[in-house]
Amino acid sequence: MRLGLALGYGGEPIEQVLPIVERAEQIGVDSVWSVEEYGPDAVSVLGYLAARTRRIALGTAIMQIPARTPAATAMTAMTLDMLSGGRFRLGLGLSVPWIVEGWHGRPYNRPLQRTREYVDIVRKVITRTERVSYDGEIYQLPYRGPGSSGQARPVKSEMTPLRSDIPLYLGAIGPRSVALTGEIADGWLSGLYAPEHEAALTRPLDEGLARAGRAPDEVRICPILYVARADTVEEGRDELRPLFAHLIGAVGPGIRNTYFDVACQMGYEGPAHDLRTLLADGRKSEAVAAVPDTLIDQVALAGPLPAIIDRIIAWKDSRVDTLILLDRDIELLEAAQAAL
User: Fold this and answer.
1) What is the pLDDT of residues 71-119, one digit of tens each?
2) What CA–CA distances, in Å, run from 75 to 43, 160, 321?
3) For the purposes of burial, counting CB atoms within 10 Å of the CB of 139, is it exposed (0-12), middle (13-18) or buried (19 or more)?
4) Which of 24, 59, 143, 274 is 20 to 30 A from 136, comparing alpha carbons?
5) For 177-197, how does the pLDDT look when each residue is reduced to its tens digit (9 = 90+)?
6) Would the pTM of this model clear 0.90, i.e. be above it?
7) Domain check: are 115 and 140 in the same one?
8) Are residues 87 and 37 in the same domain?
């Protein structure tokens, strides 16, 4: 099992980010991952880091599919891969409805079909074997719909990629999205994962792998873990309780909460329903207190450094390829890398 670092970059001066990335490279951390929601994009910071590092892999976790055309994403991936000397890993995901529609002004519809077609086009652009034409249910290249000039021809990228097989990861939570990941992706960026529930959580992934005739090791499992280092385990748990209460218990009209579904998959159906009811009733403090200790212990890292390292070691016998820590504690990162 390898170690990754998720930046959680929020637009702060690069001087606050660069030291931990440089140290991660020095000690042998496998990869560093950027994120994006509705502030800083996931791409720009990696372009900077490509020039300041030499070995560590650079990944997006994730670039939002609705924010860019497939061709624009492929262009970005080829450019970052060239600038980094072949170290780029392309992580894609759909984001959530309120960001897609509220920020990007795009409909959040047909997510599985949209993802499948998007990945198809991205790969066609990057492989650069021919002019790209595509006649999908959502995407068409060249575009022939309303407002089209009708004059466009298929296009082939001007850029010869450094690699024609840039690794492509999908951020997926719900079972159908995870199954699709097993069919078409090189890696799975998982939001909630626990070795104790691995068989249940990977069942959809294995179903997708089987449908595509692929072996289990063809998709790298890469969970992203929240970290709360504290003097005691209980203090660390309490720091994370509000986050997990919201992730699992939040509900909106017509929107399925896939974190809720995963918690149920893991055997926390009763607490998940309690969290949903408490938040719906406006009893936020009670919801926060109702997050089970065991859930936090299984899907996150909380407590003093020795306890966190013991928990990381417990992950080593799982199917996880890369354990990605959402944290910037250099001492913790050093200890975790040494333990692996």
Assistant:
1) 999 999 999 999 999 999 999 999 988 899 999 999 999 999 999 999 9
2) 12, 10, 27
3) middle
4) 59
5) 999 999 999 999 998 999 999
6) yes
7) yes
8) yes
